[in-house]
Amino acid sequence: MYETGGDWGIQDSALIVDPSKRASGFEHPYDSEFDFRGMYPEEFTDLKTYLEARLASKPVIGIELGGRASRLFSQFTPGFIERSLGVLLSDNRSASHPQQAQDALRHHEVITADVFSTEGKQTINKWLNGQKADLIFERMEGAISDGPYTEPGFMTAVFTRWYRLLSERGIMLVQSPWLDATTLTDMETRLDTLKEQHIDVVYKRRPLGDKARLYTILEKKAGAPESF
Ligand SMILES: C[S@@+](CC[C@H](N)C(=O)[O-])C[C@H]1O[C@@H](n2cnc3c(N)ncnc32)[C@H](O)[C@@H]1O
Which one of 19, 81, 130, 191 is most buried, by most CB atoms within 10 A? Predict the structure, then answer.
């Protein structure tokens, strides 16, 4: 049990956990802030401040791939998000769950689809309706621990596909599965090449035994290609 509140748990992580709740042990500690801490310039106190400053020029279209994201996007300053989407395999909330009405008020939609499938891609594109996403999160945690997700080249291919959803100046924050050293190095080498194409990339490893997760923040600068 990561926090109180039933299905508001790890299926719907926070952008930033209230430090007092984190200390009490009732909150899942791996909020987005925890994962990506130290990967943005020190002048920003936390991930929220950093993202809101970087994406200040217009209201943001946000997507979480592999998550309900109701809580994630609700924690940004009101008005920062224009509309948002959470895509996950199943949403166990009832139609009368109080969060549903809050989602509607904030123009947050939750869609069940496989984000790795062609149908999932089409569903997301339909929701985007010709627009691009300014902010993309992916933190699937244990859901992509084994199977094809950990094979060499898989995450790099996924990056390529998700990058195409991003607007100019858009930001993507991605957590990889636990990968072996060779696969990690291949991924890092590929990400390094993007730095020459007006794409800012920062990554860090979080080790566990002989594997590690790679956390990446990718920022598509003006002049960056539409795909790589
Ligand atoms: C451990 S939960 C994490 C949820 C959320 N990202 C968070 O940080 O709270 C894993 C999520 O990944 C979703 N998921 C796993 N495989 C998926 C897939 N192929 N397509 C869409 N969502 C997927 C599950 O439905 C679940 O919501």
Answer: 81
